[in-house]
Write a structure and sequence with these properties.
Blueprint (H helix, E strand, L loop, with lengths): L6 E3 L4 H18 L3 H16 L1 E3 L9 E2 L4 E11 L5 E10 L6 E3 L4 E9 L16 E8 L4 E8 L6 E3 L6 E2 L4 E5 L3 E7 L3 E3 L6 E2 L5 E5 L3
Helix pairs in contact: 1-2
Length: 216
């Protein structure tokens, strides 16, 4: 798990944090320092930690950075059917409730199109999570190559909050949005990219170089 020593709180966390502070105050006022009030205080700290929005050090290397913190659950070739309808190289990243849930642009891109679908709330590391609430993002880089991101809500996550819209230009590592609580992010790139990570590896948004161009 990445330890972020310098971070602020994402604006989406303001209301949950304020509610948690109020509940902590009420429980302490009514019960004093008790086991229950201690548990509520710990939950408050977890909510604050979950909504952290850290600064990250951008790699000075060519390639595509990881768009999310988490553990890789799949590296494969898979047919992308939402926008391009062709086989692409795919990496799936599972984000636990302890990972930072701010998602980032993997390189300098233009947002071509976004598509949002409501859905179920299966566990984000299960095969059925593709039926969950999800946001598809079609991007195109400076070399006119297509990149697809899919943000999935999970069993606990109930909302995807995008920061982007069609036509936006993003720099590498710019924030794309946040998925509240456990979730999954899939990234599709062209087949001439290779991934140096494998299933089970952990990655850090911005600081992990996820894809590099194959040498010809």
């Amino acid at each position: 798990m990445k330890i972020d020593y310098e971070w602020t709180v994402a604006k989406e966390g303001y209301i949950p944090i304020l509610v948690s502070i109020f509940i902590t105050w009420i429980s302490t006022a009514l019960l004093g320092v008790s086991f229950f009030s201690l548990i509520v205080f710990i939950l408050l700290l977890l909510v604050i930690y979950f909504f952290r929005d850290p600064d990250r050090i951008l790699l000075n290397k060519n390639g595509l950075i990881s768009p999310a913190d988490g553990k890789i659950i799949s590296v494969d070739l898979f047919k992308e059917t939402e926008f391009l309808n062709k086989e692409m190289r795919r990496v799936c990243i599972f984000l636990s409730i302890f990972d930072c849930h701010i998602n980032r642009a993997p390189t300098k891109v233009k947002v071509i199109e976004t598509r949002y679908y409501p859905g179920a709330f299966f566990f984000a590391n299960s095969s059925r999570c593709i039926e969950n609430e999800r946001l598809y993002i079609h991007m195109r880089d400076e070399n006119n190559e297509d990149i697809i991101l899919i943000l999935y809500a999970g069993f606990i996550a109930r909302r995807i909050v995008p920061y982007i819209k069609n036509g936006d230009f993003l720099n590498k590592a710019d924030r794309l949005g946040i998925i509240k609580f456990g979730s999954r992010v899939d990234i599709y790139v062209s087949n001439d990219y290779s991934c140096n990570f494998k299933e089970g590896d952990s990655v850090v948004a911005v600081e992990s170089l996820l894809f590099e161009k194959d040498e010809k």
